[in-house]
Amino acid sequence: MRFCFRPPSFLLFLFFVQFTHAQKDIRLSGVLYDSTGTVVGASQADTVDVIVKLFDYQSGGTQKYAETFLSSDSKGVSVRNGHFSVVLGKGTTQDTLSAIVAANSHLWVEITIAGDTLTRTPLTASPYVLIGNQTKQNNN
Q1: Per-residue pLDDT band at 92 (split at 50, 70, 90)
Q2: Confidence class for position 58, pLDDT limits 50, 70, 90
Q3: Contact at 8 Å (CB) between 88 and 26?
Q4: In the CATH hierarchy, which fold is given to the domain comprising 3-131?
Q5: CA atoms within 13 A on the CB side of 10
Q6: Looking at residue 119, what is its pLDDT?
Q7: How many CB atoms lie within 10 A of CB 122?
């Protein structure tokens, strides 16, 4: 089964990246459709394998980070009515996410779902993180 993202009409991006300063989590979420345009997990929740990679360029480039969410490790991703969400750091990885993000000012997220690799999208900061960082700098 081939998967694709289709954002709801009110979203401009293929998926949402949320970084919370206090928790230091990066959450990736989106809406997942199969190749016929039907939302995955419409009648009942479905579990899919997901691989998330971070690269330094939109295409090509060097892989800086990888994390897997596999059913075989009991970390498969639940999809209900098309909606899915993963939190980086909760899957299986050999990398240190915070060090990778700190060392690279521009990163691109690539997600593979059930063997289908989706288009990379930039990793961007949540506005609240920017405000929190500015406040921290002002206090120093």
Answers
A1: very high
A2: very high
A3: yes
A4: Immunoglobulin-like (2.60.40)
A5: 0
A6: 87
A7: 11
Rounded Cα–Cα distance for residues 122 and 105 (Å) = 11
pLDDT digits 0-9 by tens, 16-51: 454 444 446 788 888 888 878 888 888 899 899 999
CA distance 106 to 19: 15
Q: Which residues contact 3 (CB under 8 A, 6 or more apart)?
A: 32, 33, 34, 35, 40, 48, 113, 114, 116, 118
Task: Judge whether 33 and 43 are in contact, CB under 8 Å.
Answer: no
Report the residue count for the chain: 140
What whole-number distance in Å separates Cα of residue 88 and Cα of residue 65?
10
In this prediction the pTM is 0.76
Task: Tell me, letter by letter, the H, E, C secondary structure of the chain.
Answer: CCEEECCCCCCCCCEEEEEECCCCEEEEEEEEEECCCCECCCCCCEEECEEEEEECCCCCCCEEEEEEECHHHCCCEEEECCEEEEEECCCECCCCHHHHHHHCCCCEEEEEECCEECCCEECCCCHHHHHHHHHHHHHC
